[in-house]
Amino acid sequence: MEEQKTVVEQAKEELEKRFSRTLAVAASNLCVHCGLCVDQCHYFVATRDPNISPVAKAEQVRRVVKGEHDWLRRIFPWWTGAKELTEEDLDKWVEAAFRNCSMCQRCVVNCPLGVDTPLVLATARGVLTAVGKAPEILVQLADAAIAREENLEFFKDFYLEQIKELEAELQKKVGDPEARIPVGVEGARFLYVPLSGAHTIMPAAEIFYHAGESWTLSMFEAANYGIFLNDPVRSKRITERIIREAERLKVQEIIITECGHAYAVSRWEAPKWFKDQPWNFRVRSILEVMDEYIQTGRIQVDKSRNPFSVTYHDSCNLGRNSGLFDEPRRILAACVEDFREMTPNRERNYCCGGGGGLVAIPEWQDIRLEAGKPKADQIRATGAEAVVASCDNCRHQLGEINEHYGLNVRVMGMAELVANAIVPNNGKK
Ligand code: SF4
Ligand code: SF4
Predict the structure, then answer these.
(1) How many Å separate Cα 129 from the centre of its chain?
(2) Over its length of 429 residues, how does the chain's per-residue pLDDT go in tens digits?
(3) What's the start-to-end Cα distance of the chain, in Å?
(4) Which CATH code, of 1.20.1730, 3.30.1380, 1.10.1060, 1.10.3470, is assigned to 7-134?
């Protein structure tokens, strides 16, 4: 009988599978330990703990990668810093890669050599997932999304009933008994992919109504917890449900709701996973759609309908990771009277502390709130009455830091803000 592999052996095998040119570079001696990334990480800024600086976290994994791949280690292990992987290392990786890194990419933008620290830590996440050491809740959430597809009939009636209730609310809101929230409509122009929760459907439905858009929902939501686990099998499977629906319904575009990681997965990762099966549709964020509607006059907005001061939080996945910086600012310029930038912003913005799946892990709430302090300070300094974030994860975290640090601001989504500002036209185009 074949002998069971130890956790360390399994981890080494997984690390080997994931070894690539980009990891080789990120885990090489490219990092000169200059320390410039240290105070760029919100964890360090909040705690002043050097052990949770980007370089210190990455070094834990880098030493093991060098132990496997740097030939110099055989002669000068002390010089390369290489070390053999142990189970204790893996337990420390859970802290470094899952608990103490939100994968925000701010350290990369501020490293003069472009060392990809989050790639090193994401590799550790993938290894930990493969050996069963990833946070259980992330695994459960990813598996629940897959189970939904496998048990679609079970969910269908309940979901359609909920959508009917929302549709009635929409009709009341826009004063039109013909207003619809369509599900599974073949030939619609957009497949809009929300998250679970009416707050990601209602403002979008109202905006689509006023734009006279041809759109539909499917049975699936956008969240992809597989990506937080760096588990390509689960992530691909979760995204594939949406891709297949888009193909079945013959839509022209997939529009992702206000969710940073879901957009980044669908826009940047999925095309790599499905490169052998080219699509006939494109993927956009609802941010891009709202911006287009306003710029082209397809919806009319009146900024006096949002008469309070507003600041904007650049979600790491939409901003630094996807370059959506101008779209939200054009929308804000059209929809609010008093917009106040937080400092720093755009690619230098601080993570709210909730990215990388952390908002879903209650046992790490303390460090998550502590790491959210730089964001709380940024918001407070603007003096704004509301903070807008175009990502549900960020909004969840902002809601918690609002309470924790007594900011007394209103936390809003961009679609909610746009829906507030719309000048009704009863859906007539
Ligand atoms: S990751 Fe870049 S900024 Fe950080 S210590 Fe290494 S070289 Fe310096
Ligand atoms: S990716 Fe963000 S959270 Fe992770 S080490 Fe870099 S700056 Fe810190």
Answers:
(1) 19
(2) 667 899 999 999 999 999 988 888 888 778 999 999 999 999 999 999 999 999 999 999 999 887 666 655 666 666 566 678 999 999 999 999 999 999 999 999 999 999 999 999 999 999 999 999 999 999 999 999 999 888 888 889 999 999 999 999 999 999 999 999 999 999 999 999 999 889 999 999 999 999 999 999 999 999 999 999 999 999 999 999 999 999 999 999 999 999 999 999 999 999 999 888 778 899 999 999 999 999 999 999 999 999 999 999 999 999 999 999 999 999 999 999 999 999 999 999 999 999 999 999 999 999 999 999 999 999 999 999 999 999 999 999 999 999 999 999 999 999 999 999 999 875 554
(3) 71
(4) 1.10.1060
Ligand 2 pocket residue status of 119, Cβ below 6 Å: no
Atom 4, ligand 2: residue with shortest CA distance: 101
How far is Cα 390 from Cα 331, in angstroms, rounded to an integer? Answer: 12
Q: Is 41 in the pocket of ligand 2 (CB under 6 A)?
A: yes
Which residue's CA is the closest to the ligand 1 atom numbered 4? Answer: 37
Residue nearest to atom 6 of ligand 2 (CA): 107
Domains of the chain, by residue range, sit at 7-134, 138-294, 299-421
Pocket flag, ligand 2, residue 101 (CB < 6 Å):
yes
The β-bridge partners of 340 are 311
User: How far is the C-alpha of 116 from the C-alpha of 212, rounded, in Å?
Assistant: 44
Fold (topology level) of 299-421: Rossmann fold (3.40.50)
